[in-house]
UniProtKB/TrEMBL annotation:
Keywords: Phosphoprotein. This is Two component transcriptional regulator, LytTR family. It comes from the Bacteria. One of its GO terms (molecular function) is DNA binding. The keyword Transmembrane helix does not apply.
């Protein structure tokens, strides 16, 4: 459900919008109404509002003033107004939409769909960002590493040594197996019982007395016989 606030200084317009939302947009839960931006801001803070349906011309400050005030908050705005001359200013303030009164129910539904699409994109972006980093526990505390910086991870008994692109090493106070499942989903492969490598860092496979993964920085890592074919398949599918 979308937690919504309706803001308009005209009681009739406020009631009409409320009835339209209740009838045609059941995904919107109206948590409050306000007839000026001062009261509106109080409700936003108290009730963790997701979306505001906001008039522009009101006493004690305009809807544009409120939009400017909340621009750093996780609250979105759909402007509902009779004044089309403010459209450019409203959209520059990152409004979801700008609906002219009398509000068409189809345009209202489209605006709400845009809100859902924006939230989904935001969630996907956050998920992608979370998957691009790894949190490890060290003796000094907790470190966050960009996955692209990890060349390979080496086992050292109950510890794991993360070898990084800047020639740095970070020692995690957990065994290698702790990270295997997570890293496997993110482009890493366990080439040996004591080593997990970043597939992006492998430049070639060297055959000889033993099979070696050669990294872009020319480090050579031994591949166990039982892992060679699986590694080649992983590289082909990567």
């Amino acid at each position: 459900m979308i937690k919504a606030l309706l803001v308009d200084d005209e009681p009739r317009a406020l009631k009409t919008l409320q009835l339209t939302l209740e009838k045609h947009c059941p995904e919107v839960e109206i948590l409050g109404t306000a007839n000026n931006i001062v009261n509106a801001f109080k409700i936003i803070i108290e009730k963790s509002i997701d979306l505001i349906f906001l008039d522009i011309s009101m006493p004690n400050g305009s809807g544009l003033d409120l939009q400017e005030k909340i621009k750093e908050m996780d609250v979105k705005v759909i402007f509902t107004t009779a004044h089309k001359e403010h459209a450019i200013s409203a959209l520059r303030l990152d409004a979801i939409d700008y609906l002219l009164k009398p509000i068409d129910k189809s345009e209202l539904k489209n605006a709400i769909n845009r809100y859902f699409n924006l939230k989904q994109t935001h969630k996907s972006t956050k998920a992608d960002k979370a998957q691009s980093r790894l949190t490890i526990h060290t003796q000094e505390g907790v470190n966050i590493i960009d996955l692209s910086d990890i060349l390979y991870v080496e086992s050292d008994k109950n510890y794991s040594i993360f070898h990084l692109a800047n020639n740095d090493c970070q020692i995690a106070s957990k065994p290698l197996g702790t990270y295997e499942d997570q890293l496997k989903k993110l482009g890493f492969f366990r080439i040996h019982r004591s080593c997990i490598v970043n597939l992006n860092q492998i430049s070639k496979i060297k055959r000889g007395k033993s099979c070696l993964a050669v990294l872009k920085n020319n480090v050579e890592l031994e591949i166990s016989k039982s892992k060679k074919d699986q590694l080649l398949e992983a590289l082909n599918n990567f």
